[in-house]
Amino acid sequence: MPRPLRTAIVGAGPAGIYAADALLKSSAALDPGVSIDLFEKMPAPFGLIRYGVAPDHPRIKGIVTALHQVLDKPQIRLFGNVDYPGDISLDELHEFYDAVIFSTGADADRALDIPGIELDGSYGAADFVSWYDGHPDVPRTWPLHADKVAVLGVGNVALDVARILAKTADELLPTEIPQNVYDGLKANRAREIHVFGRRGPAQAKFSPMELRELDHSPTIEVIVDPEDIDYDEGSIATRRSNKQADMVAKTLENWAIRDVGERPHKLFLHFFESPTQILGEDGTVVGLRTERTRLDGSGNVEGTGEFHDWDVQGVYRAVGYLSDELPKLPWDVESGTVPNEGGRVVEAGQHLPSTYVTGWIRRGPVGLIGHTKGDANETVANLLDDHAQGRLRTPSAPEPEAVDAFLAERGVRWTTWEGWHRLDAAEKALGEPQGRERVKIVEREDMLKASGA
């Protein structure tokens, strides 16, 4: 009787779990069957949902319910707190599995090459997100001394950063933020948040719902300058062809014509302002310089030569995420992705046998979480085609127990799916006395203990 198709998935975030789901729904799951092991460097699964989504977005975090249903399947095992390549290498994975799928995502900040970016008070959005989401591998404190803060970028991450900076700590207390984050935000001095985009309202990458959520807080006054509401032929064409872009533009138009209210925290959305320099004194941020831009007819912009200095003491760049290079795999430095064709890893013009990618490591950090399903389906379809055509490597130790023994020999202390349930229960127990759904456990060692590892 043929053995099940053994697949390792490195990264137990949405992309990796969607790939597992695609395998479970394939014909191979019926004959010869599938056996899937997910390897995750954190002690807990869910990746971006747990460590990249703002805590005041329970609607998005609700995706975990669907991911839970996948991981509950008996064909799947979870190995948390296992690092690639520190604990297990690509060659070693190929010893145990017919195929390996990498779904490691992107959690670093893309660089912004302007003078002053290195100053104290200049931060990457990804680092701030990791802090307020309780990532175990970042510092427990965050400097929130600035009264006025700039956020560079017009995507959803910029909105998240601006909203968290503008809200009060008590507004966020009902969420799952850990105690150290609540204490840090309680001391936050920011009263003015300025979000900057170099192009116009029609080119903003906000999701309509996320944009409107800015106005839901009783402490945040969202302000848009009427002079920033401008469109050229390219912008009008974008609005006509893209419903979301049109909805974003309409929301911004409505905010631009209303009177400024009395809410204590002011959040300004600036358009046609291109950051050119972060200003500093004695190594510390004291301002931001921007160049005013104008539309060129195509929806793009050009500089006007008019500069403005903004009085801010902190700058957060939210200009995109970047994946970490994966050892033993080819790498495209410019895009921050693994070269591939339909999820098949490509090196020197040839498919790397039995090796695949999906999610942001495959296509870059663009699109919403749900978009990774299409990636996973295509990657898994090509993996299964390679299996049917006999193109996969034959592992030398395909028995599931071989992986457990290998990790034990390495001294790896790993968590399991059952361990996640224990950790989940521990976090919910911490929240119960406060009337909260959960309080996230931050320290890695505490997570391991709670999971029983």
From TrEMBL:
Q: Name the cofactor(s).
A: FAD
Entry-linked SUPFAM superfamilies: Nucleotide-binding domain (SSF51971)
Describe the reaction catalysed, as an equation: 2 reduced [2Fe-2S]-[ferredoxin] + NADP(+) + H(+) = 2 oxidized [2Fe-2S]-[ferredoxin] + NADPH
- Enzyme category, top tier: oxidoreductase
EC number of the protein: 1.18.1.2
Name any one Pfam family assigned in the record: Pyr_redox_2
The name this protein carries in UniProt is: ferredoxin--NADP(+) reductase
Organism of derivation: Streptomyces melanogenes
